[in-house]
Amino acid sequence: MMTLISKPFHFVQQFVDRIGMYRLVLGSLFTLAACSIIAGFTGLIAYSGLSQIFALALALLVALSLNWIIALITKIPANHESAAITAVILFFLAIPEENIFDNWPLVLAVMIAVISKFVIVTKKQHFLNPAAFGAAALSVTGVYTFSWWVGNPTLFIPLVILGSLVVMKVRKWV
């Protein structure tokens, strides 16, 4: 028998179970990006909503285009959700700029990350996190320093809620 407390959790678990992992992660990242953009427009975080929109759109455009081109050339099926996840994660790591040309570190990291998905593989799977690899490649060489700028008090509650959905999907709370 479900109680008043357990019923909402059961409903959420059923919802999460019906969604694929990539789709859930991508939806969570897009929701967090939307919260961040709204916070930017209202002045609750340091980066303007407009600069975030430009940076996010650019990261997604580069990731999806490059993913599609490489998949065409290599005749390997493209996973566009994976490329979009990589782009949004890197968007959260690079400072968003309103000038398109000032977003070059983000573009370069996205390009390195997407290329690594096709090059650094074993048994047809990438074994490094592409976003981490793209960010690390620029950080280790001293080209750019990345930071998790979205990690601030304004976005804490959305981050915890969305992260909890992903943890529910994985079913590992420890």
* Rg, nearest Å: 17 Å
How many strands in all? 2
Strand content: under 5%
Q: From N to C, what is the helix and strand string?
A: HHHHHEEHH
Poorly predicted parts: none
Major sheet description: 2 strands, antiparallel
How many structural domains can be distinguished in the coordinates?
1
Mean pLDDT: 92
Which strands sit side by side, in order, in the main sheet?
1-2
The N- to C-terminal Cα distance equals: 27 Å
| Fraction in helix | 55-70%
Query: What class would the helix/strand composition place it in?
Result: mainly alpha
Helical run tally: 7
Q: Which outline best applies?
A: globular
How is this structure best described in words?
The chain has 174 residues and is mainly alpha-helical. It has one domain (45-170). Helix content is 66%, strand content 2%. The chain has a two-stranded antiparallel sheet. A hairpin with a 2-residue loop joins β1 (121-122) and β2. α2 packs parallel to α4 and α3 runs antiparallel to α4 (80-93). It is globular and about 55 Å long.
List keywords for this structure.
globular; mainly alpha; two-stranded antiparallel sheet; 174 residues; 7 helices
Quick structural gist:
By secondary structure, this protein is mostly helical. The protein has helices spanning 6-17, 21-41, 49-74, 80-93, 104-119, 130-140, 156-170, and strands at residues 121-122, 125-126.
